[in-house]
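#struct-pred

JT: dropping the chains for the assembly here, can someone run the whole complex?
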Amino acid sequence: MNILLLGSGGREHAMALALAKSPLLTTLFAAPGNPGIAAVATCLALDPENHAAVIAACRAHKIGFVVVGPEAPLVGGLVDALEAEGIKAFGPSKAAAALEGSKAFTKALCAKHGIPTAAYGTFADAAAAKAYVTAQGAPIVVKADGLAAGKGVVVAADVAEAHAAIDHVFGGAFGAAGASVVIEAVLEGEEASFFALCDGNRAVAFASAQDHKRLGDGDTGPNTGGMGAYSPAPILDAACEARVMREIVQPTLDGMAEAGTPFKGVLFVGLMIGRDGPQLIEFNVRFGDPETQAMLPRLEDDFLTLLLACADGTMGATSPRLSSEAALTIVIAADGYPVAPRKGGAIDLDGAADLPGVTVTHAGTKTVDGTLVADGGRVLNVTGRGATIAAARARAYDAAARIDWTDAYYRRDIGARAIGA
Ligand code: AMP
Ligand code: GLY
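RK: done, full complex below.
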């Protein structure tokens, strides 16, 4: 079967490496891909959000299955457009992608089905939102309703900061994504991410992970797209995972199916695990980046078979097999990230890429006259595997140190909390 993988980041590189191992694969195509992905796939220069272009590429290359990496094409209805043309795809319909595309939609679903999450209100105008904040008091969380590339959430320490965040959203900072706000109570505990593979009716646990969103060591500095991750998340033990499946994932699947918008794909459950157990912070409808780079090297079953089962509605009752080994991913960014990352510096991966138990994935690179150069904020991901998170971490940091690139910036403390360092 010919496969088309959509996306261009480290997540998609990790997915490409897993798909490339499948016995079901004939030829792997990727669009737009990146120089790392190009080592295992034929890259096509097209925009994953352009439905007509994706459909034309599927016809030209006899694609049997499209795997969608990022959220924007899903929220934009790409899977619906492909299915209307008889092309099978991994990922939810536009209606089901509302689980990520609208925080108000998800909160209403939680309220209807008793799914544990923070108390909230949804508001379409600033005055009503501010009045609610004043009544509730601070700290309080202000969120733009729609997709805001991870920038639409403010955990406000006082009422004035919350009011400013509300003005920011309604001031047009997020375009249509800021047409309404969700205001919610602050949850306390430890954050973790959980991933479930869903076929519309049935869900199976895939893996857990924790990421590091802040730029600097000790969780300081600005929020980023993620500076590192590890899998599994020690806090999500078997009992907690069972609760997440029972109290959050299955009721969501049942609620979506009941509404006539069944959810197929991977459900990324952002959790706060506190004294009362796991509570939902948010859903995403795709794999996490960089969590995927840490999870997929642990997968022992065939990735493509699992993704096909999601699309075909044939998911088995048992969870995929994952290695008991841990994996840890360091994100290597360019100096100046996230404000003004330095681009164009030459990168030499020799000495790092072929180490045992190490995978280097590309997130923001390009090739210029045969030389690999930095071309983004988050540029590379280095994943180490090991018997423990500490062992995986040692491997990842050893490999990162061997990358020859003057502008490399990365955190030195990925996984510190998990290993008590
Ligand atoms: P989200 O985009 O909804 O995942 O929010 C981004 C980040 O904001 C989360 O990873 C949390 O660190 C934080 N956050 C969001 N909602 C809450 C909440 N209700 N309580 C505490 N922290 C939150
Ligand atoms: N690592 C967080 C995300 O993929 O949204």
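JT: nice. The chain has a mean pLDDT of 95. Residues 118, 141, 143, 153, 155, 184, 186-187, 191, 270, 281-282 surround adenosine monophosphate (ligand 1) (CB under 6 Å).
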